[in-house]
Design goal:
6-stranded mixed beta sheet, disordered C terminus, 4 helices, about 20% strand, about 30% helix, alpha/beta, Transcription Regulator spoIIAA, globular
């Protein structure tokens, strides 16, 4: 890691991203200030007046970003009275520390009596969750079996 930046495979440097949060129109979801202090992970949240929240986790979730991600999402869990939906569609990398962060977030939500839904994981993220056995705990039940690369009935070869 040089100059506080992590190089992705192939020598690419993760690009910085900035999310903006301005006032919401009446009756619309209220954006929460984004955590854009690092260029490896981008965290943002939109809270609705009825207590529901949608968190977006984008970039690399690893040793360098896990604690910041846990603090950000746990803060949303503590503020909101309803379901928290965490969109993982922009999560491009997740290692063991990242999985640990998601487990810590899920445990915090459970202790707080909140529903946490991790949605839209990529095939790669779903697969690592399946391999490590955390998919059933972390993913919305309808998504837990998707994208994992497990053989289905149509893939089984007759012997």
């Amino acid at each position: 890691m040089a100059n506080g930046r992590s190089h992705a495979p192939g020598g690419r440097v993760a690009a910085a991203g900035r999310a903006t949060a301005g006032p919401a129109a009446p009756g619309k979801a209220m954006p929460v200030p984004a955590d854009d202090s690092g260029d490896l992970i981008r965290l943002s949240c939109r809270e609705s007046p009825d207590g529901l929240a949608e968190v977006a986790i984008r970039g690399d979730l690893d040793l360098a970003t896990a604690d910041r991600t846990v603090r950000f999402v746990n803060g949303v869990i503590d503020r909101c009275a309803g379901t928290i939906s965490a969109d993982l569609s922009g999560l491009t990398f997740c290692d063991a520390c990242g999985l640990g962060a998601l487990i810590r977030i899920a445990a915090h939500a459970q202790r707080a009596g909140r529903v946490l839904e991790l949605t839209n994981p990529s095939r790669a993220i779903t697969r690592i969750m399946r391999i490590t056995g955390v998919d059933e705990r972390l993913l919305v039940p309808a998504l837990a079996g998707l994208g994992a690369g497990a053989p289905g009935p149509e893939r089984n070869a007759a012997s």
